[in-house]
Amino acid sequence: MRAVALTLRREDGRIVCESVLVADTIVRRMRGLLGRKSLPPGEGILLRPAWSIHTAFMRFPVDVVFIDPEQVVIRIESRLRPFKTASCRGAREIVELSAGECERRRLEVGDRVAWASLTSLEEGLSSENALQRINHKASIILASNDQRFVKVARFLLDGAGYEIAAQVRLTEVRTAVEGDGDALLLDAGDSLADALRLSNAVRATRPDLPMVIVGEATAASSLETATIYDKWEQMGEAIHALEASLGNDEKR
């Protein structure tokens, strides 16, 4: 997908945020800042269109700026903590900034803002293909022994437009892949060796099944045969990998 970075300015030209990533598709809006450890000053994310947000599963507070169709700031929620919600009827866009940025940059309700183009970033799939992926409702086999991770993964996969074909423990994976499912999300936990053995067994059963492996930080690494994503810090990348695998599979 092609993500655009913009600079947010006041109407008088003063910069509010140097680099704001535009989240203008369903996938990007649902993903938001999930998986990131922090949001540095000078960086932000623009949710468009949007008038409400949640901070479930985030790890840090943010300043939330609600902007109406006339590009006027109509509400600011400062230092919104994780697992909170905020909304503002009449807003068309929401900007999430580093906590304390609105005060530091002296952005206030009633200020009119403007956007300036900064750059475009390649993310692998076109927006059209991303929406096709959502409409297709691809189904994912979710394999994990960690119920906390299962809840987070189900939330993120649902937000990205996927269905859960099966939710199983690692001992049930070989049976699960014999049934329906367009791809496998495999949580290796902290055992890289066990995950690789299991992935090899899955490939022997369904060699064409796209598979993404996640695990604890101690297991996360890149190998010649597989990439292991950190299941708490790199779920965004893992879902990107699922999207890419499914997209490539459809093209064959």
Could you list some keywords that capture this structure?
single chain, 252 residues, alpha/beta, Jelly Rolls, Rossmann fold, 7-stranded mixed beta sheet, 6-stranded mixed beta sheet, 7 helices, 34% strand, elongated, disordered C terminus
Can you tell me the number of structural domains? 2
CATH architecture of the largest domain: 3-Layer(aba) Sandwich
**Extended strand count:** 15
User: Uncertain segments of ≥5 residues (pLDDT<50)?
Assistant: 119-136, 248-252
Biggest sheet character: 7 strands, mixed
Q: What's the CATH H-level superfamily name of the largest domain?
A: Response regulator
- The rounded distance between the terminal residues' Cα atoms is 19 Å
Structure at a glance:
With 252 residues, this protein is an alpha/beta fold. The protein has helices spanning 26-31, 101-105, 127-136, 147-159, 173-176, 192-205, 235-251, and strands at residues 2-10, 15-23, 43-47, 52-54, 62-67, 73-80, 85-87, 93-98, 113-122, 139-143, 163-168, 183-187, 211-215, 221-222, 227-230.
Structure, explained:
This protein has helices at residues 26-31, 101-105, 127-136, 147-159, 173-176, 192-205, 235-251, and strands spanning 2-10, 15-23, 43-47, 52-54, 62-67, 73-80, 85-87, 93-98, 113-122, 139-143, 163-168, 183-187, 211-215, 221-222, 227-230. It is 27% helix and 34% strand. The chain has 2 domains: 2-122, Jelly Rolls (Sandwich), CATH 2.60.120.1140; 130-251, Rossmann fold. The relative contact order is 0.14. Residues 119-136 and 248-252 have low confidence and may be disordered. Strands 6-5-8-3-2-1-9 form a 7-stranded mixed beta sheet. Strands 11-10-12-13-15-14 form a 6-stranded mixed beta sheet, with helices on both faces. A two-stranded antiparallel ribbon has the order 4-7. The longest helix has 17 residues, at 235-251. Strand 12, helix 6 and strand 13 form a beta-alpha-beta unit. By secondary structure, the chain is of the alpha/beta class.
